[in-house]
Every structure is written in structure tokens, then in C-alpha cells.
Amino acid sequence: MTRLQLFLLLRHNNQLGFRRSPAFEQSMVAKVLAIIGGGFMSIYLIGIGVMMAMAANEGDMPAFVLVILPLLLLIDFGMRFMAQQTPVMLMKPYMLLPMPRRAVIDTFLTTSVCSGWNALWLALFVPYFIITWAGGTSFLVALTVLLCGMLLVMFNSQWYLLVRTLVARSLLWWLVPAAFYGLYFGLMLSDDQLHLFEAAADFVAEQGGSWWMLLLCFGLLAVLLWINRTMQYAFVYEEIAREEKQATALKQVSDFTFLERFGQVGEYLKLELKSIMRNKAIRSRVLMSLGLVVVLSLIITFSDIYDNFLMLNFWCYYCFSIYGETALVKVMGPEGNYIDLLMVHRENTLSLLRAKYYFHVSILLVPLLLMLPAVFAGKFSLLMMAAYLFVSSGLLYFIMFQLAVYNKQTLPLDRKLTGKGNMENGLQLVLELTAMFAPLLMATVLLLVLDEENAYFVLIVIGLFFTVTHPWWLRNVYARMMARKYENLEGFHASRS
């Protein structure tokens, strides 16, 4: 079998896997939303390309787009986390088949380089190419700038794969992109080092259309492809073969006996706490959310970058909601590993839902404490904090717990690279976006109609209403889950690793 035949076969298998997925209907919704989102993004990119091409013609700088491109690629880097999987997530089923393993890795890396997401950037570079060429730039220089831009986009896709894979192993690897982008923005924003940034920008603007710049971009892409090829193969083989080193000393785990007084709900609270302590996939979500809250709190407290009134409201709500959104979007996913046991006794699952709700409400105390420095600095008010705390415990959790009815993909507990169920389905995406923006939209309308103090009081009342009525809407969620239990059980069984 040639590499081309292997590429076509694996691509066909991925399409079949999408159709046979237990969450095919929800995934179709996600696909339609992705197409609509891609259409809107292409319109924005066309507009950006036209504006930059006009600026390039006025300043006689054909490679002006390459100077601005790092800012756009930073946005692209963040957006890829919502949609792009790493090859190690996709190649697990093929590791035991009689085919060259490195060829499988090469196939998926090629797919990531030639993805539709990368091709979408042609909406920016093609108008830029046409307008600069029509404005007097030679065809060869304009074409070189276009090719350099696309090679840098492909480089960015491989940079994302590198970071995503490393971060899945340890959150400390976040220091690498932080240092990478911190150096860029440090040079740009520092008065002492601004001359270095300006010199680099002038150099790129002057030499961006040269043949050696094209070779440099191609070389950078080739080097990163080689690094990814080596690393992806080593990591996926290590995880599947269970070659990770095991600790020789036994860990002492607390029994949390103080929770026994709460009966069955207390037992499930123990399960929530021990799941965080013992399982990689769940623990990484907690640490990542905690780290984001700490960073945002420090930025808001010690800088004026987010001193805009609406931005302060957005980040205050985001700090309270981030953990609930990242954890509850997969609600019942971890329990899919042992969902059959939960069905043994009547209303077992209802007690589990109550325990999850109480746990996530108690977690809100953590961002409350971490954001107190912003209160002392005068950025947040206590009334604002109370408003978004109760909105999170009430309205946000009411929305997110609805996913318990429809989620039917098992979330692996001990694997973060090759685990299934990493992609969100359409319903998850819709509810997550609703949970993120609906309360903010409501808060914005209230702040425009009422004065600030009264608006926050209304938000507190709305949040308290959903918080106090949680026994009733949790029971409703439980009843709808039981109506779909056989369909959900089939999905959990089919998606177990």
C-alpha cells in the first residue's frame, strides 16, 4: 500500500467514524455551526486582507501582511483549541494493525497541514495578493508573500499540535507558549526595547517578498513537522503501551469521613474529590481553570488593560464560570466508565447530580477568594462579585446540568492524549456558548436600563431563584435522563476505550 493509498484509506475511515459515532446527531449540529462560523470568519478575513493590502500599496510595503501576521496567528492559536485534535487522539485504533506506525503519524500530520482550517486563511491572502499585484507589486513578489503567509499558518498549526500535546502531559508546559508570546509582546510594548521590535518589523517588511524568506518559512515548517513526528510517535506509543513510570511509594488518600453525615450525597461528594485527586483528565481541568483565574486576577489587579466597565464585568463572570463550564460540559462523561453500577438502585443518579451541584457551588468560593485582590484594588465591587457568584450557582449551572440528559460519551479518566470523547458535540457547544454569553447579555441589558447597584441586585435575585429551586430542576433533569437511559447506556458502552 502506497502512502497515498494509506492517506485516502485513513481519511475515509475518519469520515465513517464520524457517521458511526454515538453522538452523530449532535456532531452534525456542530459541523453545521462550524460551517456557518467558517463563513463569517472568511468574510472578516477578506475584509482584513483588503484593508492591509490598501495600506501596503499606500506605504509601498508588499510584505506588510507578514508584519501584522503574528497578532493574527496568536488569535488562530487560541481558536484551534476549540476544534483541532492532535494526531495521537486519532491514531490509537491503528496502532495494532499491520501497517507502518510512522506512516500513520505522517498521514495525520499531513491532514493537519492541509486542513480546511488552514485553507480558510486563503480568504485573507488571496485578496491581499490580488490587490497588491494590481497596485504595482510584481507578480513574483506578491506570490512569494502569499506563499510565505500560508506556510506560516501551517507552521502555526504544527506549533499548536506541539503545545497541545505537551500541555496534555503537564500543565507546566504552558510556560513555553507564555514565554514565546511574552517575548513578542514584551518587545512591542516595552519603551526600552521598542527599537528592536521596529527593526525586526522593518526587516520583514523589506525582505518578506524575497526568495530566501520563502525558504526560511518552508524550513521552519519542515523542522516543526519533524519534531511533531518524533514526539507524537513516542508519546502515543508510551501511553498505549503503558510505559509510564509508576511511583514506588503508595499515596495516602483521605477518606473524607466528615462527609459521611450527608448519607448517599456525601458518598458521591467523596467520589468527586477523589476523582480530582486520582485522575489525570479531571485533575488537569481543575488546575487549568485555577491557573486562569489566578492569572486574570493578577492582570486585572496590577494593570489597567481591562479597566473598561464591560470588560471588568465579563472577566468577573468568566472567573466564576470557567471551572463549571470546562467540567460540566462533560457532565456524566467520567461516570460513563461505571454508569451501569449507578442504575442498580433507584434514584442513585439523582443523588449523584445533587452531589455534583453542591460540589460545584462550593468550588465558587475559590475564585471568590482569588479575586479579592481586585476588590481591594477597586476594580471589582463586592456587589458585582455577589451578583456573578449567584448567577453562576444558579443560571449557569441550570443550563450546564441540562447536558446530563444528552451526554452519552465516556470520558477516559487516566488518558489525556489518546482518549475518546475529546471533541464537543453540537448540543454541548450551543449550551456552553449560551451559558457563557446569555448571563452577560442579560447583565448588559440590565446595566443599560437600570443603575449599576439595582442591576446587580436583579442579577442576585435571578441567580438565587435558580439556586434555591435546584432540587426541582435537578429532579427534572434526572427524570429526563431516565427516559433516555437505554439510549445513553448504549452510547456510553460504545464510546468506552
Report on this structure.
- This protein is mainly alpha-helical.
- The protein is 75% helix and 0% strand.
- The protein contains 24 helices and no strands.
- Helix 1 packs across helix 5, helix 3 crosses helix 10 and helix 21 packs antiparallel against helix 22.
- The longest helix has 36 residues.
- The radius of gyration is 25 Å and the shape is globular.
- The two termini are 28 Å apart.
- About 4% of the residues have low confidence.
Summarize this entry quickly.
This protein is an all-alpha fold and 497 residues long. It has helices at 3-20, 24-59, 64-80, 87-90, 101-113, 116-119, 122-134, 139-169, 175-189, 194-207, 211-240, 263-278, 280-302, 309-328, 339-342, 348-363, 365-370, 372-376, 382-401, 403-406, 426-449, 452-468, 470-483, 485-494. The protein is globular.
- The whole-number mean of residue pLDDT values reads 77
Following the backbone from N to C, one meets helices and strands in this order, namely HHHHHHHHHHHHHHHHHHHHHHHH
Distance between the termini: 28 Å
Unreliable sequence segments: 243-252, 417-424
* Largest sheet data: none
Radius of gyration: 25 Å
Structural class: mainly alpha
Using the alpha-carbon principal axes, give the shape. Answer: globular
Q: Helical proportion? A: over 70%
Tally of DSSP helical segments: 24
| Strand content range | under 5%
> Using DSSP, what is the number of strands?
0
